[in-house]
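Troubleshooting entry. Yesterday's outputs looked truncated, so today I'm pasting the complete records for two proteins to confirm everything comes through intact. If either block looks cut off, that's the bug. Protein one:
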Amino acid sequence: MSYENDFPRVGFIGLGAMGVPMARRVAEAGYPLMVFDADSARTAQVAASLSAEAAQNAGELGKTCQIVVTMLPTTDVVSDVLFGDNGLAAALAPGSIVVDMTSGSPSKTQEIAKKLEQSSIALCDAPVSGGVPRAKTGELAIMLGGDAATIERIRPLVSCMGTSLTVVGGVGSAHAMKALNNLVSAGGFLIGMEALLIGSRFGLSPETMVDVLNASTGMNNSTQKKFKQFVLSRKFDAGFGLDLMVKDLGIALEVASQTDTTTPFSSLCLELWSAAKKTLGPGQDHTSVARFQELIAGSELGQEPR
């Protein structure tokens, strides 16, 4: 399949908090763009703001796009979009590529790729890390799983959305890596927050503790980019849902089970995040897990313990 002026027509499915700024980066790079979301009003609004075309369904989008990006909540939703009513897969021409940027299940992604391959459609999993702020600036870290030829064909497109592109293996490998990355991130948040609670009850300033951690060996992503910004500020609005974190941790433990890996700490990590989700209720930002930790500790950061 050849592309006129090196700009294939791109479809973008999933216009949530991450999808919109990512689609904007694609549009600003000059790619002809068609967008679709399950919320038709949102589809129309985003299409207008990006000077893109709005699709009525995934099938309509697939009829005219050579590369389609999916940025959806789960792999099951991706499967529904591909193979459900007015599905994408039946509309795509042979030689098309699906770039699944969802944080998905590696094994299910591999099954989808095999099914698409029967129609000569390639799939590359390309989950991202960096959150909404880096989605807006086009500085996401993007993990790539797929065959080498497919990855090279989509590299110019994904480069519009990210500055760190890492090929990690075949189809499904990037989704595995993303889940494992979030496992490490989630564990770092929990242990860092526990340290702040201990120090706060001892009489240390949480702000000072974060500064010391960031100048020392205890530094991690949460100490650098979450504790002051979203926890100590009490904003709890980093832009990544608590439910999504729990989903990704579940995927990481799924991979552990499939590989027969014993994971005592990872299992406890998932248990704590799941308990926070159940206790705090729906619609919470993932940084609100700090409120759950404060609850079980019996005190808030910087306040006297009850």
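Protein two, checking that the full record survives here as well:
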Amino acid sequence: MYKNAVIAAVVPAYKEEKMIAKVIETMPDFVDHIVIVDDCSPDATSEVVREIADPRVLLIRHEMNQGVGGAIITAHRAAMDLGADVNVVMAGDAQMDPDYLPELLDKVTDEGFGFAKANRFYSPESFHGMPGYRVFGNVVLSFLTKLASGYWNLFDPQNGYTAVRTEVLRRVPLDRVAKRYSFENDLLIHLNILQVPATDVPIPAVYGDEVSSIRLGKVIPELLNRLTVGYWSRIWYRYVLWSFSPIALLLFMGLCLLLIGVGVSIWVVFQIAGSVVATAATVMLAALPLMIGTQMLISALQLDIQATPSTPIYQRFAVRDPEKTPPSKDTE
């Protein structure tokens, strides 16, 4: 246990026969359960796990590949069944340094956050070893995820080194969370809809000689689609259905005026191209909706940033009897 909380390490694994043993062997003693989900690996990942005599390990193997998000969801559910209070995601490639685990856990056990994640971009040296194109991609994706999820205080959304209270996970509709590469982004959107306070923890990544199997041509469209759908879902639930916030009013009116301004501007351009002199009134008819609509959208954005759920609200875990914690087991 860690500060009266039962801790479960959630480990998604796909073709990790070389590194999965290191992940288990370096897992801190205060971790009560290690839930490993072999996502239908074609190699000996499961065999390596079975050879390690650690009573904390629960092995689950998918018969069909479900993606990293699907593996994490399966592990989260298993960890909750084991009675975990906090679930920590640890990658099967040993990129997540367990020495920083206490810093991550402190945010959810002591400081009242429901969700905490690592951030590799806290200093110029913290992401040393990451290829330049990945740095650029993470910066762009971080901004898009801020906009879609509403967590303007978070950065590095693709960093899967996270800690979450199981009482929060029970409120999340896990069946509706994306199961592949966009899992982390989509989870943030669902957490924001539930107004779960979240925070970043500065933690460097560990880079080895692993080779990424991500196909950008497939991943980028999936991410953009998920972020777009997630953004409007968040706006609908948080600012329309549950409260009809001024944010929704400013957003919809701003978009409407912006579209009117664009339409009138196109009409004016065609009039000028047809040798018709545009009057001052005609120009203002196009400019005013554009200016007012833009100002409304900026105001909506400012209010959305102020509404970021970042204030801790959860209490510390009460002392509990560790003998009541269900034992771990192997399953296929």
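Both blocks look complete. Sanity check on protein two: The beta strands are 7-13, 33-38, 57-61, 86-89, 115-119, 162-165, 198-202.
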